[in-house]
Design a protein that fits this description.
This protein is an alpha+beta fold and 144 residues long. Helices cover 16% and strands 56% of the residues.
């Protein structure tokens, strides 16, 4: 087989291998500027972080299930600060919502550094559940 034929065959094989990725990506939906996979009991999950110029960090974790299917939502939200090699815990909050939706909003003061919020959701339908972990964007704050 000539070099040109091998190149064409390799390109065609690459395209065939990439085709399933396009199909999988189409199974996701865009919500609040985040691409969300489809879950069994969860319609939407979101986590966000905002830090004011005064150093107040506003953390939000929000989940919504399906009416008639989702029975309870547990949210654990952890504000994390980036240290040398890893993310360390600054503060943790949690809440249980006996409904098909729940929102956890918390504030705290922070010093200079880079922060993010880790949100862990457990969404229930009766005795069955699914776990979802999301991270907010990373924000750098410098105390003046």
């Amino acid at each position: 087989m000539s070099k040109r034929t091998k190149t064409i065959v390799c390109l065609l094989m690459s395209l065939v291998l990439l085709l399933p990725l396009n199909v999988m990506a189409s199974a996701a939906t865009a919500t609040k500027n985040q691409v969300q996979p489809r879950w069994s009991y969860t319609d939407m999950a979101y986590v966000g972080l905002d830090i004011t110029t005064g150093g107040t960090a506003y953390s939000t974790a929000d989940a919504e299930g399906y009416p008639g299917t989702t029975t309870k939502i547990y949210i654990k939200m952890t504000l994390q600060k980036h240290t040398l090699l890893w993310w360390s815990k600054v503060e943790t909050w949690e809440g249980t919502f006996n409904n098909f939706y729940g929102t956890l909003c918390e504030t705290t003061q922070v010093g200079s550094g880079t922060y993010r919020v880790k949100a862990e959701f457990t969404v229930y339908s009766g005795s069955s559940s699914e776990d979802i972990t999301l991270y907010s964007q990373e924000l750098k704050f410098t105390k003046s």
